[in-house]
Design goal:
4-stranded mixed sheet, 9 helices, 4 strands
């Protein structure tokens, strides 16, 4: 899916194919998203990213205090200054086993290497992350993320906020409904997922979720 181009977008990025030492594809880097997702991970890597020189003129720089995640930190630095545009095309290859940073795969993978730097990045950009958290897309992302982790309380906190901003959004209705189902409120879950299915009546996944909610409500009664 290609994003609509805006004249305000001073960063353009694409997709990188990730391969192992034998040339097998392990996955891909680079995905469409929003700035709030930088709290958890970078949406891009340097080799598939172009940015306007004006951002450097504005003061965007790599932070030399980051031995790792310096690229992630730099992308957040850019994100506070401009929207990004995603091009859904593979433009390069990353040999993920090469190097010694411990942040790749295979021989170049050491679990836990990045955590101290991620904490440092979050502290450095806490103001930006706080602002970005209040956007509907970030609230939905955080709600879904916490739902997958089984943290129902936080999932509901984010998803109910998103639903207030997007009361007719199918994704918000469904996710919030599933969070309520996980929390044990089958009645609320049925109502929300039912509204989502009414807006997209042929969606098999919504129909299955609604059946789960109705079954749970029936058992509770």
């Amino acid at each position: 899916m290609r994003a609509t181009r805006s004249l305000d977008e001073r960063v353009v990025y694409s997709v990188t194919r990730v391969i192992d030492d034998a040339g097998n594809t392990l996955g891909h880097c680079g995905f469409a998203g929003f700035h709030g997702a930088f709290y958890y991970q970078s949406r891009t890597i340097p080799v598939d990213t172009l940015f306007q020189r004006s951002l450097a003129d504005d003061g965007a720089r790599f932070d030399l205090s980051f031995d790792l995640l310096e690229d992630h930190d730099f992308f957040v630095n850019l994100a506070v200054r401009t929207p990004f545009r995603f091009v859904d095309e593979v433009t390069n290859i990353w040999h993920a086993g090469a190097g010694e940073s411990g942040t790749g795969f295979g021989h170049n993978e050491r679990p836990g290497t990045l955590e101290p730097y991620l904490e440092k990045l979050r502290a450095k950009w806490s103001g930006a992350f706080s602002r970005w958290t209040n956007t509907p897309e970030t609230l939905l992302f955080l709600g879904q993320h916490n739902l997958r982790l089984g943290d129902t309380a936080h999932a509901l906190l984010y998803l109910e906020q998103a639903l207030k901003l997007l009361p007719d959004d199918i994704n918000a209705l469904n996710l919030c409904g599933m969070a309520h189902l996980q929390a044990g409120d089958a009645t609320r879950a049925e109502a929300l997922i039912g509204r989502a299915l009414a807006r997209l009546p042929d969606h098999a996944g919504l129909a299955a979720n609604l059946a789960l909610a109705r079954e749970a409500r029936s058992r509770a009664n």
